[in-house]
Amino acid sequence: MTADATPGVTDLESLAGSLAEDHVLVDPLFGNGRTEEVDAALTEVVDGLGYPAYVVLAPGPEGLSGTDPGRDLATRLHERIGGDGLYVVQTDPKSHALTFASFGDVPEATLRYEVETGLRPEGGANAGLAPAGISARTLDVLDAVDRGEEVSEDRFDSWSGRTVFQEPAEWDLDYDVPTSGTYAMGSTLALVAVAGCSYLLLRTAFRWRETAPAAGPVAAARRTGRTRSSEQRRAARGDAPAPAPGPAEVRATAERELESLSRLLARGAGRPLGPEQRELVDGSYDTARSLLERTGTDPADLDDLLGALVLVRVATRAAGTRKRSRRSARGQAEEQAQEQAQEQAQAPAPYRPCFFDPRHGEGTARRTVPVGDRELTVPACPRCTRATGTALAPMVVRGGLLGRARPWYELDTVWARTGYGAFVDDLWQHVAADLRRSR
């Protein structure tokens, strides 16, 4: 495709018309220096599929959603082209973020996660592959699933062996992390002093077990080693808890929930949002994507991956959902007006994860932890709310100068300073600022 015919310099209607004739469009910015080869290789893949697919690796036309331009472009193209189709879209050449959108009788795009996590449980499925290679392999994987074929490890790995699909030696990652000025109702960073004080409290939060009074005979039994841990007792009963998700599982969950959120936003199926809520949704969404683009699945990435997952859930909670009604059009209009009035009066409670381990899910209760001569009240999941003694264990991550495993709150990170959102309402702004400083 020539430079003057790229999707980035044409209108949506022309782009849809070109894509209807040629199902693969690759802009030179996305061609790894081999634009014609990449285009030809992707065309070969698309032509061999058992379902219709369209691939657009190019800057999109103006006016796309700032929240998820890839999904917005895929939706608009499908509306104009019509029929069944699986769309693969990437509009930012500085990002590996790809949008896979299924419309009609084609494989569901999320099925790829089952194959990837099955063959690469520790993550790294996309290592060495450029976005074009990820696109080609994913289309092939979905085709195999659709045909009822098993995807072997050799088949999965074969795509990274093709030079045309390999990632270049270096990528220019001069990417602007979202700022509050990106959105209409920008606001300045706030609660820095509060976050700093909270961080100091965090560093000593779990010392309460050392300063708290012992429990008589139980404490004596512990000192003499005549009691078993709660984990040992649960294991003996055969009801030991499942191991906590690792980095690869957390990443897969974050990506799935991010894709679900993008579908919700693309449909416009969420609750009516005011300017502040819209900023929270957009900022949290974009910052979560930035985090996922900069992390892998190493143990040292766990805290950032969990942060991305928390931000996705913050955005999802803020976006909300609207229940469908079977009432008349007039009744629906009255109902919607009432809902809008209620929502303007009170925004939904923000999502805050379990303070002790964000992998536990939402902290639906509050637990007070003694810290010296004061107390710190934090959100906790039901299990951590009831837990006592060593059963109440914080998440351990790797970090610091030595990279050793330590409780997450002991590290000097944005997550410790904000408590994964336990102490601030604008988590995304703190994280975005931290990402800009670390560039």
Task: Please give a handful of descriptors for the protein shown.
alpha/beta, four-stranded mixed sheet, 17 helices, about 450 residues
Descriptive notes:
The structure is a single chain. With 439 residues, the chain is of the alpha/beta class. The protein is built from 17 helices and eight strands. The strands form three sheets. Strands 1-2-3-4 form a four-stranded mixed beta sheet, sandwiched between helices. It has a two-stranded antiparallel sheet with strand order 5-6. α2 packs parallel to α5 and α12 (275-294) packs antiparallel against α13 (302-319). It is globular, with a radius of gyration of 24 Å. The two termini are 34 Å apart. The model is unreliable at 1-9, 170-175, 184-194, 204-240 and 322-329 (pLDDT under 50).
Briefly say what this structure is.
By secondary structure, the protein is α/β, with parallel strands linked by helices.
Query: What is the averaged pLDDT score?
Result: 76
Biggest beta sheet summary: 4 strands, mixed
Distance from first to last alpha carbon? 34 Å
Which range does the strand content fall in? 5-15%
Radius of gyration from the alpha-carbon trace, in angstroms: 24 Å
Would you report the number of β strands?
8
Low-confidence stretches: 1-9, 170-175, 184-194, 204-240, 322-329
Strand order of the largest sheet: 1-2-3-4
With helices defined by DSSP (H or I, 4 residues minimum), what is the helix count? Answer: 17
